[in-house]
Design a protein that fits this description.
43% helix; alpha/beta; 3-stranded mixed beta sheet; 7-stranded mixed beta sheet
Length: 326
């Protein structure tokens, strides 16, 4: 196996540390709507210039880039699916987020700080992380060589966030639009009954594979996309989110993590070699979370004043709420 056999796209939506190599391809998710309001507000001209200079856009050829505010990074993954031939039809295709990567180098000393409690996701400051050389070609190829699929470890929402179900998590993140989860359930049950077992694990449980990060053999990746987008685009159409705010519009995108989890769980019964890995987070992910904390906290407080401290843990904020000044 060589570098040309593996292409891992890294999804970007704003300027940050650029990771680029023969294997790693920076991908701007949502380029078709780059000038529109997003969860971070509007990007300034310099940020847009940086993205266009340093990343591939997901808005060429067959694409759904215009739906990015509804589907999040999934518009980039759709573009990967439809344009893999432009990159030589690699044997393995993967996706990671700009500040969230797999731990490829097992020798790295892990910090104490975690993304959320009791989950194997570790926070690094950016300078320290870059020096680890975690994303070297050799490190990546060693992990992939013996596996058909690479995915994150499952997150247990009850332990990490005091959230009892996956639906409850989505209702919190989408600010009350949990009904979109129910639409997803209906679409999977109707169109993909072969996934019922894995759907029930999501419906009735509190664990899933987070972040939509993965590396898969090409045939698995194609099957994954056929399933996920076969559901996701239908969910978006049936959700009627025209009047939703920027957070509520993201509800179908939150469903994508559960669909990804269903697909990965299905590989278990097919005895497909799957490697579950820790996730490393650059510290700028934590900085963004702190910026958003005020907005999210006020919303959670408005819907559940008695138990808001439990729900707030989903964002990994080890803070005393009483000491925060808003």
């Amino acid at each position: 196996m060589n570098n040309n056999d593996v292409k891992i796209f890294i999804g970007y939506y704003k300027p940050t540390t650029l990771f680029k190599s023969d294997i790693l391809i920076p991908l701007h998710c949502g380029r078709a709507v780059v000038g529109e309001e997003s969860k971070c507000g509007k990007l300034n001209k310099n940020w847009i210039k940086w993205l266009k200079s340093n990343t591939v856009g997901d808005d060429t050829g067959d694409n759904i880039s215009k739906y990015n505010r509804y589907l999040n990074e999934m518009t980039g993954i759709y573009w990967m699916w439809k344009h893999q031939q432009d990159f030589g039809n690699p044997a393995y295709i993967g996706f990671m987020q700009y500040a969230k990567h797999f731990l490829f180098d097992s020798k790295i000393k892990l910090p104490d700080s975690r993304w959320v409690p009791e989950y194997e996701g570790y926070l690094f400051d950016t300078d320290t992380y870059v020096k680890t050389n975690n994303l070297s070609n050799d490190n990546i190829l060693k992990v992939i060589a013996d596996n058909d699929c690479v995915c994150p470890n499952k997150i247990n929402l009850l332990r990490s966030a005091s959230v009892k179900t996956c639906r409850q998590q989505m209702d919190i993140l989408s600010k009350g639009y949990g009904y979109v989860f129910d639409i997803m359930v209906k679409v999977v049950e109707t169109k993909y009954p072969q996934y019922k077992k894995y759907l029930n694990e999501i419906k009735n449980g509190c664990e899933h594979y987070p972040l939509n990060c993965f590396i898969m053999k090409r045939d698995l990746f194609n099957k994954y996309c056929e399933f996920v987008f076969g559901v996701l685009l239908e969910v978006m159409k049936e959700s009627h989110l025209e009047n939703a705010n920027i957070y509520q519009k993201r509800a179908p995108g939150y469903c994508a993590e559960f669909l990804t989890s269903m697909f990965i769980s299905s590989l278990r019964d097919k005895k497909i070699k799957t490697c579950k890995m820790c996730i490393l987070y650059q510290d700028n992910a934590k900085e963004y979370a702190n910026i958003q904390f005020k907005k999210i906290y006020k919303y959670i407080l408005s819907i559940n004043k008695e138990n808001h401290r439990h729900y707030i843990k989903i964002f990994g904020m080890k803070l005393f709420i009483e000491k925060r000044k808003f």
